[in-house]
Design a protein that fits this description.
about 220 residues; alpha+beta; Zincin-like; 2 domains; seven-stranded mixed sheet; three-stranded mixed sheet; about 30% helix; about 30% strand; elongated
Length: about 220
């Protein structure tokens, strides 16, 4: 299902009563078109006079870009409610998903049969549903064992990674392309050297429509 403000409000009220004993104060809800997160708790952080931080101005944001299973959407809301509980009570955790968060996560999963995760790994179907047009700078690498990998590169890191891709272990060949095909939306844009393995059968028709890139000194251009 696609998230709506009405659904988020109803589930927040329900889970606040059942899981958090009504301890969470009402807060604004927002929808986002983000593809990089399912849910997010936004807030203001101000340094206290004698050290530490004070958290306020909370907003619970849920992405409406993806059509999710209802249970996953509920778990996403609860995930952000855990963050809200910790920060609104001015608790200091060991990290963003530290000991306090993980303790609450495990307790809620056990007592209420939930499957709240630290992060969400998109399923293949979710990735394929992302059809927004974006320009991608792509390196296709061949490994000594015959496998193929791709790296989608942030434009600001194009020259740096162009030089370093050959240093990756067992890479014997690399070719660069520019493409607007949504196939590449599934891969994070790298600012460090990362290669994601793909099958040649998937890649071949995509590259047939891509434009090869060449480097001439300090200039990278279409071949």
């Amino acid at each position: 299902m696609i998230a709506t403000i009405d659904f988020i409000e109803r589930k927040f009220t329900e889970f606040n009563r059942i899981i958090f004993n009504g301890s969470l104060k009402p807060l604004p809800f927002r929808l986002s078109n983000a593809r990089t997160f399912l849910g997010q708790l936004r807030y203001t952080r101000k340094r206290k006079l004698f050290g530490g931080w004070k958290y306020s101005d909370f907003v619970l944001v849920i992405s409406k870009r993806k059509d999710l299973d209802e249970t996953l959407l509920e778990d996403t809301i609860i995930h952000e409610m855990i963050h809200y509980y910790i920060l609104s009570n001015q608790l200091t955790d060991s990290s963003a998903h530290g000991k306090i968060f993980r303790g609450m996560q495990q307790d809620i999963n056990t007592r209420f049969g939930r499957k709240i995760a630290i992060s969400h790994r998109p399923a293949k179907g979710e990735l394929e549903n992302d059809t927004q047009t974006r320009v991608h700078y792509v390196c296709v690498s061949k490994f000594s064992d015959g496998r193929t990998g791709v790296t989608t590169v942030a434009r600001t890191r194009l020259f740096m990674l162009w030089d370093k891709i050959g240093d990756f272990p067992d890479v014997i060949q690399s070719k660069w392309y520019v493409s607007a095909d949504s196939f590449f939306n599934r891969f994070p844009r790298s600012i460090t050297l990362k290669i994601y393995r793909v099958s040649e059968s998937e890649l071949e028709p995509v590259l047939a429509k891509a434009k090869a890139l060449v480097r001439d000194g300090n200039v990278i251009r279409v071949k």
